[in-house]
Amino acid sequence: MNWRQKVLDEIDARQEELLELCSKFIQFPTENPPGDSRDISDFIIEYLAKSGIGTTVHAATPEMLNLVSTYKGSGRTGSGKKLIFCGHTDVVPAGDLDRWDFDPFCGEIRDGYLLGRGASDMKAGLAGVLFAASLLAKLGVPLGGDLTLLVVPDEETGGHLGVPWVLERGLVEGTAAVIAEPSGPLNPTIGQKGSCWFEFTVEGTPGHGSLSPVVGESAIVKAAKGIEALQRLWDIEPNIPEEVKSIIAISQQYAKEREPEGLAYQVFDHVSVNIGTIQGGTKVNVVADRCTVQVDSRVPFGVDYRQVMDRAGSLLLEAGIETDIKPFGFQGNANWTPPEEPVVKHLVDSISEVSGEEAYGVLQWASSDARHFRTHNIPVLQYGPAELSTIHSFNEKAPVWQIIRSAKVYALTALKYLGVEETPNA
């Protein structure tokens, strides 16, 4: 049997089932915070059970459930390969409902789009990997290795109770992974910049607001000088390794073509600096005695995130601010999976096979759970359906054609990477 064609034909025939699954996922309001995956997890467990795939539940908290579900292969032609399909169930909060043109949890299909919070990030992708694995099981495809679904409840707030929690405890095994995070339709993400989040607190001297700046010393004014100084983190010169210069150039060109009026291509080889929050002062007519600033910095290849921390401290001192730099949240260096890795080659080939167009991997300037897989020496890349401009925004949506294409790519990647056993009736 030609399993590839059989699977592609079945996905075409069962498109409505896939879209119905996507819609159902949107209708679970899994905003994080607060974060509660119990209802959607029960639904997923039941859905997979109908195709004969069992699930083990690993609760990081009573509300945060990590699911591990495996469709077992023979292990012969796969030579011990174990492929992980990964996705998260949580979504960012919908925000001001009056600014949506539709109910963010409607899950409607309208004018060729799936509508709702999480449509692009990443419930359509999650539905795609679950649908593909379930279909392979229902058809009884004799895979040569194991296909495991890892569904995690925590990614949007840093993911500490999701992928890293599972991997650190050895609760899942894999020789490669695909995360169904949003990407370009022809361009999976094979690497990402590092992260360096930190905060600093400035002390001032309070006084009556009517006497400022003669009396008192405003912590907010001092912090503003530090904020201005930190913009010079952009000027750190990266010592870019030879092996990633090519993929950086490819990614810069990709960014220019995708955003012809934008400037995003510049951040691939620079340290970015975002002043995310400022909290200071007690009352409008009191000179502020304290101000805390939180900074999100993204780190390119060739720069260590600890180097960024050190430079930030030096810049603040030069601005006359003596304070402790405190790291929090994302901390880590740039990382990638080379295009030569089998799982990358198979997924890229699958995109080209389904689309009839050239596909290739690129870097992203943000971060994701991919870094955790790489920390555990598991080659990984990201690919999923999305209307990228709507992610984390109002009126989030995802194109139906991308949802269907992605499901085909997931299924073909599993067939190619794990291999298929020949059977007497094949």
TrEMBL record:
Gene3D superfamilies linked: 3.30.70.360, Zn peptidases (3.40.630.10)
Pathway given in the UniProt record: Amino-acid biosynthesis; L-lysine biosynthesis via DAP pathway; LL-2,6-diaminopimelate from (S)-tetrahydrodipicolinate (succinylase route): step 3/3
One BP annotation, GO: lysine biosynthetic process via diaminopimelate
Domain Peptidase M20 dimerisation residue range list: 190-316
PROSITE patterns in the record: ARGE_DAPE_CPG2_2
PANTHER family: ACETYLORNITHINE DEACETYLASE, ARGE_DAPE-RELATED DEACYLASE
Catalysed reaction equations from the record: N-succinyl-(2S,6S)-2,6-diaminopimelate + H2O = (2S,6S)-2,6-diaminopimelate + succinate
Necessary cofactors: Co(2+); Zn(2+)
Official protein name in the record: Probable succinyl-diaminopimelate desuccinylase
Family to which the UniProt record says this protein belongs: Belongs to the peptidase M20A family.
GO molecular function terms noted in the UniProt entry: metal ion binding; succinyl-diaminopimelate desuccinylase activity
Keyword Metal-binding assigned: yes
Keywords associated with the record: Cobalt, Hydrolase, Metal-binding, Zinc
Species the sequence originates in: Paenibacillus durus (Paenibacillus azotofixans)
Enzyme Commission code: 3.5.1.18
Superkingdom, natural source: Bacteria
